[in-house]
Amino acid sequence: ACICEKNKRVTSCRQANGVCWCDSVGSGVSVNCDTLTSKCLLMKAEMTGSKSGRREKPKDAFEDTDGLYDPECENTGVFKAKQCSGNTCWCVNTAGVRRTDKHDADLKCNRLVRTTGIIVEMKHAERNAPLNTESLKKFFRETIVNRYMLDGRYITSVLYEKPYITINLKQNSSDKSSGDVDIADVAYYFEKDVKGDSIFHNNILNVSIDNEELRFEKTVVYYVDEIAPEFSMKSLTPGLIAVIVVVIVAIVAGIVVLVSSNK
To answer: Which portions of the chain are predicted below pLDDT 70?
Structure first.
């Protein structure tokens, strides 16, 4: 027996050739505990827990877009392009985020569209003086590289404008090697850490800048896909339309899906 340090939502752990392997809760897929578990398998495990009443959904999750759902995963752990709940189906990107309107079971999702960019925006609690920018950048870069094992070249920037911290990740399919962790998995682990619901086994993330603990009031995650999402404007709320328009102007690409939740 062994302990899966990078995923607490597992069972039946065993040692094989010096590596700890465990079965992911809900799917039974074997996962390598030396690296991050895919977001699809993590969501499925979390839904298994919530069905038994052990966990509530975040109160501010958009249930019809990016809330927690019970996903269908490939044997490799990646999301299937088409996801369904009963007879209602939709297409997702590699981060598992809905990128089409909801349809009936006849919906065709030709392929799983890659999420090439992720923007994590955090608002920290009120404080009198701003944080030291260089210390903040150093902390988040080192955390993402060391804790989540993401190659530093995929971190395009860490920006700070009190009270907002923005982390930009970019990973094209042509850049990603077979041994690299996926930015969607990194963002999911990071979001869970920031909200105090760590996936790691007995390893809580302490966000401390210059020996001062930092607390967050809100976290917003934007997903940028290699192909534009296929939403009809009537299915979007005015607020979400405004956000998408702003991000289109800001990043030119105009390929955005939004996840928003409060801690």
So the answer is: 49-66, 233-263
| 60: number of Cβ within 10 Å | 11
Token duo for residue 86: 């009963």
**In this predicted structure, what is the pLDDT of residue 259?**
56
Give me the residue label for tokens 């990071």.
190
Q: Which two tokens stand for residue 181?
A: 């962790």
Listed residue (194, 185, 171) closest to 117, CA to CA: 171
193 contacts 167 by C-beta, under 8 angstroms: no
Go through the chain and tell me how many residues it has. 263
Please answer whether residues 195 and 215 qualify as being in contact, where contact means their C-beta atoms are separated by less than 8 angstroms: no
Q: Specify the pLDDT at position 74.
A: 96
Q: What pLDDT shows up at residue 230?
A: 84
The helix or strand, by DSSP H or E, that contains position 258, with its residue range, turns out to be strand 256-262
Provide the edge-to-edge strand list for the sheet that holds 164-170: 155-161, 164-170, 115-124, 216-225, 256-262
Contact 48, 23 (CB under 8 A): no
Q: Which residue has the tokens 């042509």?
A: 174
DSSP 237: -
Structure-token pair, residue 184: 């969607």
| Tokens of residue 61, six digits | 């999750």
Dihedral angle sign, alpha carbons of residues 9, 32, 99, 189: positive
3-class SS at 244?
A: helix
CA distances from 175 to 39, 135, 178, 182, 254 (A): 20, 29, 10, 11, 21
Confidence (pLDDT) at 236: 55
| Per-residue model confidence (pLDDT) at position 221 | 87
Token representation of residue 118 = 């992720």
Residue 199 CA neighbour count, 13 Å, CB half = 27
> Which residues, listed in sequence order, are joined to residue 162 by a DSSP beta bridge?
none
